[in-house]
Structure formats: C-alpha cells, structure tokens
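Dear colleagues,

I hope this message finds you well. In preparation for our joint manuscript, I am sending the Fumarylacetoacetate hydrolase family protein (Streptomyces ovatisporus) sequence together with its predicted structure, so that both groups work from identical material. I would be grateful if you could confirm receipt.
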Amino acid sequence: MRIARFSLDGNVAFGVVEGDAETEGGPVLDIIKGHPFAEFERSGQKLPMDKVRLLPPVLPNKIVAVGRNYAEHVKEMGNEVPDTPVVFFKPSTSVCGPHDPVGYPSFSSEVHYEAELAVVIGRLCKDVPRERVKDVILGYTCGNDITARDVQRAEPQWARAKGFDASCPLGPWVETELDASDLGVMCTVNGEQRQLGRTSEMIRSVEDLVVHITEAMTLLPGDVILTGTPAGVGPLNIGDEVAVTIEGIGTLTNKVVKRD
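The corresponding structure tokens are as follows:
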C-alpha cells in the first residue's frame, strides 16, 4: 500500500495511492479517515493525483541518519569501514517533499546528493529485538541526504553540513508492503545516472540499524531512519534537478535553487 500526504485548498490529509501513470486517468488518492499510524478506513472520496500537492509523507520528530553504510561509498570517501554504525541527526526543519525546491546554502560551495532508503517508524518503540523490527516499521520511502561536503570536512560535528533547511527531501509516499533487503537505489542529476546500488550491499541491514538505534533512544511514530548511501556521490549546482528512485517505491525529484 502506498500512503501519501497531500494538501488541497489549504487542507492536509493522507490518502492511499491507487493506480499509476499507466492507469487510465492517472493515479488517484483515496482519502483516508484519520492517519496511517493507527487503524484507518478509506473514505472512498478520490482525488486525481495531479490536482493535489504532494507533501513530505511524514513529519518526523527526528531523522536518525546513518553514515558509511556501503563499503564502496566508504572507500570513495577515503574512510575505513566503521566498527559500529555512524549515527547522526538531521533536524525536522531539514525535511522537504517531492518537487520542493532545495536552496543551495550560502555557507557552502560543494553540495552533494546522497540517495538513501528511508525507513518510516510506525509505532513508539525502544529496545526493539531483531524479531520485532518489522512490527515497528510503517514502511519505506525515498530520501536524499543532501550534504554540504566542504563544511562536513571542515567541522567535526555534521550538524550544519547535513542539517540545513531542505537538506532532507523525502517522498513521494510511504510503501508499506515491501521487502527492503535487496532494492535498487539510483540517483540521477538532470537525467544522468550518478548512483546505482542495492540495499543488499549495506554493511548493516535495516534490522541491524533499528536494533542499534533503539538501544539508545525511543523512536516515535513518523520518525525516519536514513540507511546510508551507495557509492557515486557528487556535486549539485543551482538549476540541477536531482531524482532518487528506489525499486518498489518510486521517484523523489527536487530542483536546486538559489537560496533566498
């Protein structure tokens, strides 16, 4: 099931995505009663997707991101495979949605894309045992851990490098019925492929990460875990269109603009 969050005439709601671009009339949204973090019903009221604005599929309290989780990416960055997961935070204010502009930060001259599988937490959880991990996951979406690489190199903490406004595009929706163990992850810039990997290449799996993170902190419904990026990261420039496509989910597209 694909669950999207959208706005229409100033009203925000969730809906189940039905159909796709090949469907006659295009995809539609069946508005749901309530929200996806509890039992809900479909209202039967359907809206054409092209009549609404898609929003970030969730508004996370926190984004827990994982660095250096693909061996080839670790190698290209000149680092060693870490003994334990490298965990950092992106603030909620870094989140933006499909087709939202990404403002190029004024304090950087080297901004990179990082295509990532994003895990969306579905229920409050802590100290999750491996056999219960699937029970606490609502689903998966596409993420882009946009990074001011020059700032990341210059500052020992990554808060500014990875936490600036609109540095965490998410979307286009949450796919709830998906085996995330071996999915293709691709990034294109202006239609040109830049990254191509598979989640089976992750050093630590989704299960490993959920167990590790919840040993330390409580995750809330709607929180997001970014699982790391494959090799092939590189620069973005003002005017570029960057797209993250994950097998079984869809494509998240954003344009880089001059920051006001």
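For the figure legend, we might mention the following. The chain has two domains: 2-54, 63-258. The chain has a mean pLDDT of 97.

With kind regards,
E.M.
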